[in-house]
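Reminder to self: tokens first, then the designed residues, so the page reads top to bottom the way the pipeline ran.
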């Protein structure tokens, strides 16, 4: 019995048809930069624990990937919402 649970989801680029697709995009990079810009002063000026700040950053990145749901094609660079 093949595909017992669910069929494989293959995402293709709507622009070029390539199957080389990854999560990402400009919005995700903006989230990364904002989190870094907030984390550095939080650790250096407010003296918060760096491990806790890093954990909050990882959780925020995971949530951003789920909420924004952007895809980017590795071949042509086209970005779209998944």
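Designed residues (82 positions):
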């Amino acid at each position: 019995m093949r595909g017992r649970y669910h069929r494989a989801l293959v995402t293709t680029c709507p622009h070029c048809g390539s199957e080389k697709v990854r999560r990402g995009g400009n919005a995700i990079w903006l989230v990364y930069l904002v989190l870094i810009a907030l984390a550095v002063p939080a650790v250096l000026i407010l003296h918060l624990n760096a491990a806790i700040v890093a954990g909050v950053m990882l959780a925020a990145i995971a949530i951003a990937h789920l909420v924004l749901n952007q895809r980017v094609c590795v071949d042509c660079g086209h970005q779209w919402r998944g």
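Residues 53 and 59 are 10 Å apart (CA to CA).
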